[in-house]
């Protein structure tokens, strides 16, 4: 019985558009999952040890961001940004903003 262990493994989930905080604009990107450790028995996958994390990657600049981060990524198939509610005052903001236009709070 041969057991192999590989370090982080990236698996693409889907492609779409997101607002990249690095580029400061809406760009094409992808949603992917990183599995910390993956085991194989010969060439048969037997599972992963640690939890997988979801990330969003910008295809313009190449940066990756955690999906549950503090940015309004608005990932999806739509090119135009959607609206988001400010958690403090409830103001509707477009997804290209990082601060609420009414109260100024960072999202």
Order of helix and strand elements from N to C terminus: EEEEEEEEE
How many domains?
1
Q: Taking all residues together, what is the mean pLDDT? A: 77
Alpha-carbon distance between the two ends: 51 Å
Low-confidence stretches: none
Helix count from the secondary structure assignment:
0
- Sheet with the most strands? 4 strands, antiparallel
Backbone shape:
elongated
Q: What fraction strand?
A: over 45%
Class from secondary-structure proportions: mainly beta
Radius of gyration: 18 Å
Query: What percent of the residues sit in helical stretches (DSSP H or I)?
Result: under 10%
Main β-sheet, spatial strand arrangement? 2-3-6-7
Number-wise, the strands total 9
Write the layout of secondary structure elements.
Blueprint: E1 3-6, E2 9-20, E3 25-35, E4 38-41, E5 44-48, E6 52-58, E7 64-66, E8 83-85, E9 92-94
Antiparallel strand pairs: 1-4, 2-3, 3-6, 4-5, 6-7, 8-9
What does this structure look like?
With 107 residues, this protein is mainly beta. Helix content is 0%, strand content 49%. It has strands at 3-6, 9-20, 25-35, 38-41, 44-48, 52-58, 64-66, 83-85, 92-94. The chain is elongated, with a radius of gyration of 18 Å.
In short:
This protein is mainly β and 107 residues long. It is 0% helix and 49% strand.
């Amino acid at each position: 019985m041969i057991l192999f262990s590989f370090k982080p493994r990236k698996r693409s989930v889907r492609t779409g558009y997101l607002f990249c905080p690095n580029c400061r604009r809406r760009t094409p990107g992808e949603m992917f999952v990183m599995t910390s450790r993956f085991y194989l028995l010969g060439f048969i996958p037997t599972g992963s040890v640690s939890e997988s994390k979801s990330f969003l990657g910008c295809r313009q600049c190449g940066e990756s961001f955690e999906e549950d981060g503090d940015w309004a990524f608005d990932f999806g198939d739509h090119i135009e940004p959607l609206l988001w509610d400010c958690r403090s005052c409830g103001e509707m903001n477009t997804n290209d903003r990082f601060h609420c236009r009414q109260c100024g709070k960072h999202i």
